[in-house]
Amino acid sequence: MKGKLLINFALIICFFCCSSGRVIESPHYKVIHVESDFEIRQYKQVSWMSALVQGTASFEKSTQQGFHRLYQYIHGANSNSSHFLITSPVTTTIMASKRQPEHLIRYYLPNGNAENPPLPDSELNVQFEKWRSNCLAVRRFPGFAKDDNINKEIDALKSSLSKYLPEGAAISEYTIAQYNSSRRLLGRLNEVWLDVSGFTAEGCQPL
Ligand SMILES: *[C@@H]1O[C@H](CO)[C@@H](O)[C@H](O)[C@H]1NC(C)=O
Ligand SMILES: *[C@@H]1O[C@H](CO)[C@@H](O)[C@H](O)[C@H]1NC(C)=O
Protein backbone atom coordinates (compact mmCIF):
# COMPACT_ATOMS: atom_id res chain seq x y z
CA MET A 1 0.00 0.00 0.00
CA LYS A 2 2.72 2.35 1.01
CA GLY A 3 4.76 1.36 -2.05
CA LYS A 4 1.83 2.05 -4.39
CA LEU A 5 1.28 5.48 -2.90
CA LEU A 6 4.91 6.31 -3.42
CA ILE A 7 4.74 5.24 -7.05
CA ASN A 8 1.64 7.38 -7.66
CA PHE A 9 3.31 10.30 -6.01
CA ALA A 10 6.37 9.85 -8.21
CA LEU A 11 4.21 9.73 -11.33
CA ILE A 12 2.43 12.93 -10.41
CA ILE A 13 5.72 14.74 -9.77
CA CYS A 14 7.08 13.44 -13.07
CA PHE A 15 3.98 14.58 -14.96
CA PHE A 16 4.36 18.14 -13.70
CA CYS A 17 8.08 18.26 -14.29
CA CYS A 18 7.84 16.84 -17.76
CA SER A 19 4.94 18.98 -18.90
CA SER A 20 6.28 22.28 -17.59
CA GLY A 21 9.90 21.51 -18.40
CA ARG A 22 9.32 21.28 -22.16
CA VAL A 23 12.62 21.79 -23.93
CA ILE A 24 12.76 25.07 -25.83
CA GLU A 25 14.74 24.89 -29.05
CA SER A 26 17.68 27.21 -29.61
CA PRO A 27 20.27 27.46 -32.39
CA HIS A 28 23.20 25.05 -32.12
CA TYR A 29 26.72 26.34 -31.68
CA LYS A 30 30.18 25.29 -30.67
CA VAL A 31 32.25 27.34 -28.23
CA ILE A 32 35.69 27.81 -29.69
CA HIS A 33 37.26 30.31 -27.32
CA VAL A 34 36.49 31.36 -23.75
CA GLU A 35 37.56 34.47 -21.84
CA SER A 36 36.38 35.60 -18.41
CA ASP A 37 33.84 38.06 -19.84
CA PHE A 38 33.00 36.79 -23.32
CA GLU A 39 33.25 33.78 -25.60
CA ILE A 40 33.52 33.10 -29.31
CA ARG A 41 30.92 30.74 -30.75
CA GLN A 42 30.64 29.14 -34.11
CA TYR A 43 27.02 28.77 -35.23
CA LYS A 44 25.82 26.40 -37.92
CA GLN A 45 23.29 27.65 -40.47
CA VAL A 46 20.36 29.30 -38.66
CA SER A 47 16.89 30.08 -40.06
CA TRP A 48 14.90 33.05 -38.79
CA MET A 49 11.74 34.98 -39.49
CA SER A 50 12.60 38.64 -39.20
CA ALA A 51 10.70 41.89 -38.84
CA LEU A 52 12.30 45.22 -39.73
CA VAL A 53 11.24 48.17 -37.58
CA GLN A 54 12.10 51.69 -38.69
CA GLY A 55 11.54 55.10 -37.27
CA THR A 56 12.18 54.66 -33.59
CA ALA A 57 15.55 54.77 -31.88
CA SER A 58 14.19 52.84 -28.91
CA PHE A 59 15.41 49.28 -28.60
CA GLU A 60 12.48 48.39 -26.34
CA LYS A 61 9.79 49.87 -28.60
CA SER A 62 11.29 48.33 -31.73
CA THR A 63 11.57 44.93 -30.11
CA GLN A 64 7.96 45.11 -28.95
CA GLN A 65 6.67 46.14 -32.39
CA GLY A 66 8.73 43.58 -34.28
CA PHE A 67 7.91 40.79 -31.87
CA HIS A 68 4.21 41.56 -32.14
CA ARG A 69 4.37 40.90 -35.91
CA LEU A 70 6.41 37.73 -35.45
CA TYR A 71 4.04 36.54 -32.73
CA GLN A 72 1.14 36.69 -35.18
CA TYR A 73 3.15 34.72 -37.73
CA ILE A 74 3.94 31.93 -35.26
CA HIS A 75 0.32 31.86 -34.09
CA GLY A 76 -1.29 31.10 -37.43
CA ALA A 77 -0.94 34.22 -39.62
CA ASN A 78 0.78 32.23 -42.36
CA SER A 79 -0.13 30.39 -45.56
CA ASN A 80 -0.56 27.10 -43.69
CA SER A 81 -2.31 28.49 -40.59
CA SER A 82 0.50 26.72 -38.71
CA HIS A 83 1.22 27.26 -35.06
CA PHE A 84 4.89 27.13 -34.17
CA LEU A 85 6.74 26.20 -31.03
CA ILE A 86 8.12 28.94 -28.85
CA THR A 87 11.89 29.08 -29.36
CA SER A 88 14.65 31.20 -27.91
CA PRO A 89 16.31 33.57 -28.11
CA VAL A 90 14.39 36.45 -29.65
CA THR A 91 17.03 38.75 -31.06
CA THR A 92 17.11 42.45 -31.89
CA THR A 93 19.80 43.72 -34.22
CA ILE A 94 20.61 47.40 -33.92
CA MET A 95 21.86 48.70 -37.25
CA ALA A 96 24.02 51.58 -36.21
CA SER A 97 25.29 52.53 -39.66
CA LYS A 98 21.89 53.55 -41.05
CA ARG A 99 20.91 57.20 -41.15
CA GLN A 100 17.47 56.41 -39.75
CA PRO A 101 17.31 54.14 -36.73
CA GLU A 102 16.61 50.54 -37.81
CA HIS A 103 16.13 47.39 -35.81
CA LEU A 104 15.67 43.86 -37.05
CA ILE A 105 13.78 41.55 -34.69
CA ARG A 106 14.18 37.81 -35.23
CA TYR A 107 12.38 34.63 -34.22
CA TYR A 108 14.40 31.42 -34.46
CA LEU A 109 12.65 28.87 -36.69
CA PRO A 110 12.61 25.43 -35.05
CA ASN A 111 14.10 22.44 -36.83
CA GLY A 112 11.01 21.12 -38.62
CA ASN A 113 10.35 24.55 -40.16
CA ALA A 114 13.86 25.71 -40.92
CA GLU A 115 13.86 24.88 -44.63
CA ASN A 116 10.47 25.76 -46.12
CA PRO A 117 8.48 27.67 -43.54
CA PRO A 118 4.93 28.68 -44.55
CA LEU A 119 4.68 32.16 -46.08
CA PRO A 120 3.83 34.96 -43.70
CA ASP A 121 0.59 36.90 -44.26
CA SER A 122 1.77 39.84 -46.34
CA GLU A 123 0.49 42.61 -44.07
CA LEU A 124 2.82 41.38 -41.32
CA ASN A 125 5.80 42.37 -43.42
CA VAL A 126 8.08 39.68 -42.01
CA GLN A 127 10.78 37.90 -43.99
CA PHE A 128 12.35 34.47 -44.05
CA GLU A 129 16.08 34.72 -43.56
CA LYS A 130 18.89 32.19 -43.45
CA TRP A 131 22.25 32.83 -41.85
CA ARG A 132 25.25 31.01 -43.15
CA SER A 133 27.51 29.47 -40.57
CA ASN A 134 29.10 32.35 -38.65
CA CYS A 135 31.26 33.31 -35.68
CA LEU A 136 29.89 35.44 -32.89
CA ALA A 137 31.54 37.08 -29.92
CA VAL A 138 29.08 36.78 -27.03
CA ARG A 139 28.74 38.54 -23.68
CA ARG A 140 26.05 37.46 -21.19
CA PHE A 141 24.10 39.75 -18.91
CA PRO A 142 21.24 39.19 -16.45
CA GLY A 143 17.99 41.04 -15.79
CA PHE A 144 15.87 42.79 -18.43
CA ALA A 145 17.47 44.16 -21.60
CA LYS A 146 16.47 47.82 -21.71
CA ASP A 147 17.24 51.07 -23.50
CA ASP A 148 19.21 52.24 -20.49
CA ASN A 149 21.46 49.22 -20.02
CA ILE A 150 22.18 47.66 -23.40
CA ASN A 151 24.71 50.27 -24.52
CA LYS A 152 26.83 49.62 -21.46
CA GLU A 153 26.87 45.89 -22.29
CA ILE A 154 27.64 46.49 -25.97
CA ASP A 155 30.52 48.82 -25.07
CA ALA A 156 31.90 46.31 -22.57
CA LEU A 157 31.99 43.59 -25.25
CA LYS A 158 33.56 45.97 -27.76
CA SER A 159 36.29 46.89 -25.32
CA SER A 160 36.98 43.24 -24.33
CA LEU A 161 37.30 42.45 -28.02
CA SER A 162 39.44 45.40 -28.97
CA LYS A 163 42.73 43.62 -28.38
CA TYR A 164 41.67 40.79 -30.70
CA LEU A 165 40.23 42.77 -33.58
CA PRO A 166 42.32 44.43 -36.26
CA GLU A 167 42.92 48.16 -35.82
CA GLY A 168 39.93 50.16 -37.11
CA ALA A 169 37.73 47.09 -37.58
CA ALA A 170 34.30 48.57 -38.17
CA ILE A 171 31.39 46.84 -36.48
CA SER A 172 28.11 48.48 -37.36
CA GLU A 173 25.58 45.93 -36.11
CA TYR A 174 24.96 44.78 -32.57
CA THR A 175 22.52 42.09 -31.61
CA ILE A 176 20.79 41.66 -28.26
CA ALA A 177 19.51 38.12 -27.65
CA GLN A 178 16.79 37.64 -25.01
CA TYR A 179 16.17 34.09 -23.83
CA ASN A 180 13.30 34.32 -21.36
CA SER A 181 9.65 35.25 -21.44
CA SER A 182 8.96 38.65 -19.87
CA ARG A 183 6.93 36.87 -17.18
CA ARG A 184 10.19 35.52 -15.73
CA LEU A 185 11.51 38.05 -13.27
CA LEU A 186 14.53 36.21 -11.90
CA GLY A 187 17.28 34.14 -13.44
CA ARG A 188 17.00 35.89 -16.81
CA LEU A 189 19.63 35.50 -19.51
CA ASN A 190 20.48 37.98 -22.26
CA GLU A 191 23.47 38.26 -24.56
CA VAL A 192 25.21 40.78 -26.78
CA TRP A 193 26.31 39.25 -30.08
CA LEU A 194 28.91 40.74 -32.37
CA ASP A 195 29.58 39.00 -35.67
CA VAL A 196 33.34 38.52 -35.93
CA SER A 197 33.28 36.15 -38.92
CA GLY A 198 35.01 38.74 -41.02
CA PHE A 199 37.95 39.09 -38.65
CA THR A 200 39.05 35.46 -38.33
CA ALA A 201 39.40 36.23 -34.62
CA GLU A 202 41.15 33.50 -32.68
CA GLY A 203 41.05 31.04 -35.51
CA CYS A 204 37.27 31.13 -35.91
CA GLN A 205 36.80 29.89 -39.44
CA PRO A 206 33.32 29.56 -40.91
CA LEU A 207 32.43 25.86 -41.14
C1 LIG B 1 1.31 22.60 -43.43
O1 LIG B 1 0.61 21.91 -42.42
C2 LIG B 1 0.58 20.49 -42.58
C3 LIG B 1 -0.32 19.92 -41.50
O2 LIG B 1 -0.02 20.44 -40.25
C4 LIG B 1 2.01 19.97 -42.51
O3 LIG B 1 2.03 18.59 -42.68
C5 LIG B 1 2.85 20.65 -43.59
O4 LIG B 1 4.20 20.25 -43.47
C6 LIG B 1 2.77 22.16 -43.46
N1 LIG B 1 3.45 22.81 -44.57
C7 LIG B 1 4.41 23.74 -44.39
C8 LIG B 1 4.97 24.38 -45.62
O5 LIG B 1 4.81 24.06 -43.29
C1 LIG C 1 16.22 31.75 -19.14
O1 LIG C 1 16.74 31.15 -20.31
C2 LIG C 1 17.95 30.43 -20.14
C3 LIG C 1 18.43 29.97 -21.50
O2 LIG C 1 17.46 29.24 -22.17
C4 LIG C 1 17.70 29.27 -19.18
O3 LIG C 1 18.91 28.56 -18.97
C5 LIG C 1 17.16 29.82 -17.86
O4 LIG C 1 16.85 28.76 -17.00
C6 LIG C 1 15.92 30.66 -18.11
N1 LIG C 1 15.49 31.30 -16.86
C7 LIG C 1 14.29 31.09 -16.34
C8 LIG C 1 13.98 31.80 -15.06
O5 LIG C 1 13.47 30.34 -16.86
TrEMBL record:
InterPro entries per UniProt: Reg_factor_effector_dom_sf (IPR011256), SOUL_heme-bd (IPR006917)
Signal sequence residues: 1-21
Gene3D superfamilies: Regulatory factor, effector binding domain (3.20.80.10)
Pfam families: SOUL
Keyword terms of this UniProt record: Signal
PANTHER family in alphabetical order: HEME-BINDING PROTEIN-RELATED, SOUL HEME-BINDING PROTEIN
Family: Belongs to the HEBP family.
Record-given protein name: SOUL heme-binding protein
Organism: Citrullus colocynthis
